[in-house]
Design brief:
homodimer, mainly alpha, Arc Repressor Mutant, subunit A, 3-stranded antiparallel beta sheet, 3 strands, about 45% helix, globular, DNA-binding
Chain lengths: ~130, ~130
DNA sequence: CGAACAGTTGTAGAGTTGTTCAAGTGTTAG
DNA sequence: CTAACACTTGAACAACTCTACAACTGTTCG
């Protein structure tokens, strides 16, 4: 094997400044930051757990606190992060505040990723 | 709209220890941790940018470094995080190492979230 | 009104993360 | 074998994050 390049690797020695293909960003920097924020909000096990709970329906802070055995204020803080990234919405009913997933997109996203993560370990015979 | 409470809010004073509905976790703790890891890996603007670039095709580290004007080792570190969470895969070809999205699920997930984040701001007239 | 309940928010400290520089590994060419 | 290139990894440090306690706001009840 000698002509390893039939897919156009970077030139030879200095692959730069003379012909960049149309590899522009498909989304703006702001959208990218919002998306990253969303991912980061979901990227904590305890917060993800809350989202998972809400996947099954609306809950108020004290109910969640009961279910997870965590401090009320801890739950509130976690929900705040999720709310900041628009992953959940809030609704007040008397003394209680009920939280729910923001919309169907969020629910779909969660279901997809949780399913993916629950899949068997996919033992690659060759990969790492 | 008056009898707002037909959805069973938490009891009255102390909603606990006597009748918890089937609100068990749908996924195990390990799956939850994997999912959170995945989200966290994608939850950084610079790493998400890399994923976005890879959405358009395989790239080697130096190409990415060129495109983003970041240090080669910085790119490598970022890719390592993505690889640890199985978001990207690696392939060696001579002196170059090419990275690509791990699979279609990842590509779909990215497209979905980036599209969601690019949507108009959804000005809620009543929400917060 | 004031007490009690439900949540939120300020804050501090432990822990985690991201970047960079330096040094190391793997691959090809001479 | 040596040099050069392409990347990876180790270490250090600033920046950020998560939790829990305390103090505060909002709501209902008597």
């Amino acid at each position: 094997m000698m002509q390893e390049s039939d897919r156009s690797p970077p030139s030879e020695t200095t692959p730069h400044s003379h012909a960049d293909p149309p590899r522009r960003a498909s989304v703006g920097a702001a959208a990218l930051a919002r998306a990253a924020g969303l991912f980061r909000a979901a990227g904590d096990p305890s917060r993800l757990r809350l989202l998972e709970l809400l996947l099954q329906g609306e809950l108020c802070v004290s109910e969640i606190s009961e279910l997870t055995s965590d401090d009320l204020s801890t739950i509130s803080q976690r929900l705040r992060v999720l709310r900041t990234e628009h992953l959940v919405i809030r609704r007040r009913e008397g003394k209680h505040v009920f939280y729910a997933l923001a919309d169907g997109h969020v629910a779909d996203l969660l279901r997809a990723v949780l399913a993916h993560a629950s899949e068997p370990a996919t033992t690659h015979p060759d990969g790492d």
